[in-house]
Amino acid sequence: AAAAAAAAMLSLDFLDDVRRMNKRQLYYQVLNFGMIVSSALMIWKGLMVVTGSESPIVVVLSGSMEPAFHRGDLLFLTNRIEDPIRVGEIVVFRIEGREIPIVHRVLKIHEKQNGDIKFLTKGDNNAVDDRGLYKRGQYWLEKKDVVGRARGFVPYIGIVTILMNDYPKFKYAVLFLLGLFVLVHRE
Amino acid sequence: RKNVEDFTGPRERSDLGFVTFDITADILNGKNSIFDWNVKQLFLYLSAEYSTKNNALNQVVLWDKIMLRGDNPRLSLKDMKSKYFFFDDGNGLKGNRNITLTLSWNVVPNAGILPLVTGSGHVSVPFPDTYETTKSY
C-alpha cells in the first residue's frame, strides 16, 4: 500500500513537471537518459576488455560453493590467456549448449607441452566432482568453456538480479521507477 | 599403485595412485593471524604435481578441507588417505620418481580479493616401478 502511494505521488509530480517542461527540455532529458545508458554500456564493455572475460561480473546462482559463496553473491572475474589454469582456482564455466554459468573449483588438470589443457571441477559443497554435470560423453572441461576465474567478490548484492529473474513483475517495477527517476530528475 | 579401469572417466585403463600422508599445521592465531577481520574461511588443499610422457604438467587435488574462522587452527592429521582418486591421464605414475606434494590455500574474505597461496616447502614422493596386485590400504 505504501509502494502504491509513493508511485501515485511520483506520477502526479511527473505529470506536473512534464506540463512545465517545453519540448526542448524534454528532448534534453531524453538525451541525458541516453547518455547515462551509453556510459553504462561503455563501462561494461571496458570491463570486458580489461578482464578478458565476456562476463566480468557474475551472480552466484546455487549453493554448491557454500560456505564460501551463497546465492546472490557477486563475483568479479578475469580471463586472461596468460594466466594458466591451476588446481584450487575458482572458475566460472559454461557447459557447451547451456546458458547458465557454473562456479566451481578446479580439482585436476592435465596440460600438454603446447598448452592444451583439460581439467575437472567440483563444487566445494558437492560430494562428487562435476562429471555428472558435463555433457553426455564429456569428461573434461577445456579453456574454451571458461568464462573467467574468480578474483574477488562481494556478498549479497547480486540478490537483486536473482529477484528480477524470478519475479519479472519486480524487474519491470524497478526499470519503470528508474526510468521515471531519470526522466524527472532535473540536473 | 595399480593400473585400474577408471569408471568415472573414459573407459580406458589408467594408473591409480595411493598415497597416505600426515599433515601438521599450526595456523597462527592472535595478532598476526591469517584469520583477520575480513577472512571468512580458508580452503586448504593438498595437491600432487608431476610430469608424464602424455602431459607436460599434471595437478591432482588429493585432499581438501574448509577451515572457518573460529575453527580449531591446529591441524594434526595422521595416516590420511587421499579424499579423491589419484587417477593419471594415462599410465604415467608407474616409475615416476618425482611427484611433488604441496599444501595450498584459498583465502576467502567477507568481501574482496580471493588470493590463492601456496605453502613454502613441499614433499617429493617417488612411485614404484611395478603395480600392486593386492590391496594397498
Automatic annotation (TrEMBL), chain A:
One annotated GO molecular function: serine-type endopeptidase activity
Cellular component, GO annotation: signal peptidase complex
One GO process term, biological-process aspect: signal peptide processing
Compartment annotation: Endoplasmic reticulum membrane
Cross-referenced InterPro entries: LexA/Signal_pep-like_sf, Pept_S26A_signal_pept_1_CS, Pept_S26A_signal_pept_1_Ser-AS, Peptidase_S24_S26A/B/C, Peptidase_S26, Peptidase_S26B
A family per Pfam: Peptidase_S24
Function statement: Catalytic component of the signal peptidase complex (SPC) which catalyzes the cleavage of N-terminal signal sequences from nascent proteins as they are translocated into the lumen of the endoplasmic reticulum. Specifically cleaves N-terminal signal peptides that contain a hydrophobic alpha-helix (h-region) shorter than 18-20 amino acids.
Summary of subunit composition and partner proteins: Component of the signal peptidase complex paralog A (SPC-A) composed of a catalytic subunit SEC11A and three accessory subunits SPCS1, SPCS2 and SPCS3. Within the complex, interacts with SPCS2 and SPCS3. The complex induces a local thinning of the ER membrane which is used to measure the length of the signal peptide (SP) h-region of protein substrates. This ensures the selectivity of the complex towards h-regions shorter than 18-20 amino acids.
PANTHER family: SIGNAL PEPTIDASE COMPLEX CATALYTIC SUBUNIT SEC11 (PTHR10806), SIGNAL PEPTIDASE COMPLEX CATALYTIC SUBUNIT SEC11B-RELATED (PTHR10806:SF28)
Protein name, per record: Signal peptidase complex catalytic subunit SEC11
TrEMBL record, chain B:
One of the GO BP terms on file: protein targeting to ER
Top-level taxon of the source organism: Eukaryota
Lipid bilayer topology: Single-pass type II membrane protein
Subcellular location: Endoplasmic reticulum membrane
Spans traversing the lipid bilayer: none
Keywords: Endoplasmic reticulum, Membrane, Signal-anchor, Transmembrane, Transmembrane helix
GO cellular component: signal peptidase complex
Annotated InterPro entries: SPC3 (IPR007653)
Cross-referenced Pfam families: SPC22 (PF04573)
Record's function text: Essential component of the signal peptidase complex (SPC) which catalyzes the cleavage of N-terminal signal sequences from nascent proteins as they are translocated into the lumen of the endoplasmic reticulum. Essential for the SPC catalytic activity, possibly by stabilizing and positioning the active center of the complex close to the lumenal surface.
Family the entry assigns: Belongs to the SPCS3 family.
Protein name: Signal peptidase complex subunit 3
Record lineage: Eukaryota, Metazoa, Chordata, Craniata, Vertebrata
Gene that this sequence comes from: Spc22
